[in-house]
Design a protein that fits this description.
Order of helices and strands: HHH
Largest sheet: none
Shape: elongated
Helix content: 55-70%
Radius of gyration: 18 Å
Strand content: under 5%
Amino acid sequence: MDVRAQITAEAEAYRRADAEKEAARIRLAELFRLARSEDIGPAEIARLTDHLYTKEHISRIAPKASAGSSD
C-alpha cells in the first residue's frame, strides 16, 4: 500500500474512532441519568467509570431530580 492510501485509511479509521467515542459518550450520559434516577450517586458512578468522569462532571450531566441527595 502506498503512503497516500495509508494516509487515507488512517484518516478514515480516526474518523470512525471519533464517531464511536461520541456515541459512547452519549450512551454513558443516558446511563448516568438512569443511574441517578435509581439513586446511584455521582461518587459511585465515577468509581464505576474508573474515574473517567468526575463526580462534578456526572452531577452536571445527570443532576438528581429530587432535592436532598447525599452525594
